[in-house]
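User: Show me a protein chain along with its predicted structure.
Assistant: Here is one chain, sequence first, then structure tokens.
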Amino acid sequence: MNPRSIEVDLDRQILTLLENGEALQTFPVSTAANGAGELMDSECTPRGGHVIDEKIGAGCAADTVFVGRRPTGEIYSRELREQHPGRDWIVTRILWLAGTEPGRNAGADVDSKARYIYIHGTPDDTDMTVPGSRGCVRMRNTDIITLFDRIDPGTPVAIVSSGESKG
């Protein structure tokens, strides 16, 4: 059994890395601007049990830009943001989540993996005190590198919230 696990608290905007149930480290995060929810196209962060299904970006430079889970060859900068103002910036590393609860976050129109829900790096000027993503869990670049290096595929992830479902 994997002694490490992750908990994302949507209400507190905190990700905690645990080992045998004890907190090792906490990180600020920014989750969905639309709140918690599981439906396809809702742009909400899905709750419940997940696992790290794939780790993407090992060895890439901090601020490497990803589109479709592939590095574009770009390195994020404010100038690049000005050139692409509508882009959803996914940078540095990607931890692709798969839901483990059929009917809640796995399968049909609630499948977290099919919704492309990630824990991923975000530009360092992103406000980490408020929800702002399109469903993913955003982390600072140094934090996603630290987390990425400390976990393996199959690591359990619990996404929790006391708030009402929006989707």
